[in-house]
Amino acid sequence: MARSLWRSAGVAFMRAIFGCLALACAFATGAGAAESAVVVAPPALDPAPPPGAGPQSIVLAGGCFWGMQAVYEHTKGVTSAVSGYAGGTKSAAQYELVSTGTTGHAESEKVTFDPRQISLGKILQIYFSVAHDPTELNYQGPDTGSQYRSEIFYADLQQKRVAEAYIAQLNKARVFAAPIVTKVDALPGFYPAEEYHQDFAVRHPDHPYIVFNDLPKVENLKRLFPDYYRAAPVTVLASSKQTQ
Fold it and tell me: Catalytic amino acids?
């Protein structure tokens, strides 16, 4: 919430910078703490792709999209990770509006991946293990509001089945101290966020918010999923240059 209030004034980029610096001050006094990874088993239901299957995409919400993007840009098999908004209308897909928590949107990540290199199940295992805490309802770490909720927006019924089965599996195993609150809904539409949000962790690795909240997630990806970690991230900027 502090981040959103600070970002409401000034130019777009400076909103992003000083909003997070306000949180850094809170962390210095012990008001916040970086979230830890949780080791979770892979999903029991994780169908192999059909022969010749092309790229697949799924939209995942789990707190500030800076951290979600940072994790998946460093994940092998992911060909694109774009920060944006899902859950609301196109006209409301603007940071200033989404930050009010009244648009129905969640800060989200559209993760496109090669199913021959990484399965949907592995994407979700990383999502539940290191990308965010799925037990936090309408907040994530220092950020509060429905725009920071945990939600999986599926593209087809198979994604829905895999996601719902995995949540049931993890809840039954009680791997978390509290029940998973992640919602599973059909994707109504995905709208990329403003340019200054894209590749934020890559472009600003020394930013206090990134250092405290998001770089530990990338390190946890490297530690817990070494076979799926890559040091050189795939970025939105690089992808856009390739298509020009």
Answer: 64
